[in-house]
Design a protein that fits this description.
Strand content of chain A: 25-35%
Oligomer: homodimer
CATH superfamily of the largest domain in chain A: Pseudouridine synthase I, catalytic domain, C-terminal subdomain
Largest sheet of chain A: 10 strands, mixed
Number of strands of chain A: 10
CATH topology of the largest domain in chain A: Alpha-Beta Plaits
Number of helices of chain A: 5
Shape of chain A: globular
CATH architecture of the largest domain in chain A: 2-Layer Sandwich
Structural class of chain A: alpha+beta
Distance between the termini of chain A: 21 Å
Order of helices and strands of chain A: EHEEHEEEHEEEHHE
Number of domains of chain A: 2
CATH class of the largest domain in chain A: Alpha Beta
Chain lengths: ~260, ~260
């Protein structure tokens, strides 16, 4: 059962949301200039409808245009005393059909979706069969040629641990540091689907899509064995494989 | 490898297609009056673009508006000598994104998608969690309350074998016979999804959606144990559970 309400801190409660969304219609998570539809914008609009206050929703991190989530996390502060599970239901009643709140819970005042995150799990999904998708279109990257999964798995293991991932960073982005720690990596086949799952303490812009593109080049025999290690060492984006489309990417979970 | 071409029969070749579709935008499989978008209509239009002839495509059976397929089967006759796999690629290049041809193959002249079918496998999928779907919306039926799967499985076993399924037939349809043979039934949980799979030699109109609705009433405790047997015996639609929405239903396979 929910412990509700927690003692207020400065009169404010801190609410954590776990969110599923189909990113197809959105310009990504983060509120941008005028006009662009974003997940954060849709959430803030829905909260305004319910709580009648302009609240700022903090996400665990941005997801790009077209990227999906099954476990994005966000939090916001409110003085409303609404029970979290009632808020979940109210949000699901007013949010667009492609965004759903899976959980709402009150958390301690110092919880911060982004700064408190210990790791994130993303999954890149490839539809690997001769014919393009009908049912999963927009949710997977279609790749019709055969791939050497055993080789891809061996190569993916070279991503494990603390590395400078500059080679897998979008060329137009310069983040202050490009060292990240990859905690887990798994490549699974589920019939016609290939899932590349990666858990890390953080990700550079386009990092997973660049890694997935590189692993495909390896799996089809265009890049030789040893490429991941070599490309990591080169610290230069132009040696990595192509950046795969956003639609195959899904934020599965944020760990705290 | 394909044996191609087979000797012509009356100068015509018989082509079998295996088709995946997302049924959301369609008024079902079968060509109807003017205006309604159908899968059959989309296929015939695509074949006309490729082969420049008005061909009639025969499906294994109708699927209703909103019903999906991962393995619908259809066939048509043509005097074109195009290799079946080239035809598959050409069709996928001109068909709408929510229809995909998984296989095209030449079959013997007496193959008929409907009359040659030995059995069909349908699956009804329920999203069983507190929050509505975002990613799978339109592909599942959302049911937030807990269900007794063990009881549902015991009851579902009563469907096995040859029965008069009149109690599970749409009230406004009167087919000549209502006896069908259910060969397999399985209820599987995959995390938040519950799949009800049924294989039978044929299905009455709305039969699976009525059976799924009845199983849910049993699983939530509204109908007592023994209900499936009792309802089958009553041979009257009004004793069965509700007809669930089309979106949870998918034609998985047609066996020949």
């Amino acid at each position: 059962m929910e412990k509700y309400p927690l003692p207020l801190f400065n009169g404010m409660r801190n609410i954590k949301l776990t969110i599923e969304y189909d990113g197809r219609r959105y310009a990504g998570w983060q509120v941008q200039g005028k006009g662009a539809k974003t997940i954060q914008g849709a959430l803030e609009k829905a909260l305004y409808e319910i709580l009648h206050k302009k609240l700022k929703v903090i996400g665990s991190g941005r997801t790009d245009a077209g990227v999906h989530a099954k476990g994005q996390v966000a939090n916001f502060k409110t003085d409303s005393l609404i029970a979290p599970d009632r808020l979940r239901m109210a949000l699901n009643a007013v949010l667009p059909a492609d965004i759903s709140i899976l959980r709402a819970e009150e958390v301690s005042p110092d919880f911060h979706s982004r700064f408190s995150a210990k790791s994130k799990v993303y999954r890149y999904t490839i539809l690997n069969r001769p014919s393009r998708p009908a049912i999963l279109r927009g949710m997977v990257y279609f790749y019709p040629y055969s791939l050497d999964l055993a080789l891809m798995r061996r190569e993916a293991r070279c991503l494990l641990g603390r590395h400078d991932f500059r080679s897998f960073q979008a060329t137009d982005k310069k983040e202050r540091g490009s060292v990240r720690k990859v905690k887990k990596v798994a490549i699974l086949r589920d019939k016609e689907l290939i899932h590349i799952g990666i858990e890390a303490n953080g990700f550079l812009y386009n990092m997973i899509r660049n890694i997935a593109g590189t692993l495909i080049e390896i799996g089809r025999g265009k890049f030789p064995e040893g490429s991941i290690k070599r490309i990591l060492g080169l610290k230069n984006r132009r040696f990595a494989g192509p950046n795969l489309p956003a639609k195959g990417l899904c934020l599965l979970k944020v760990n705290y």
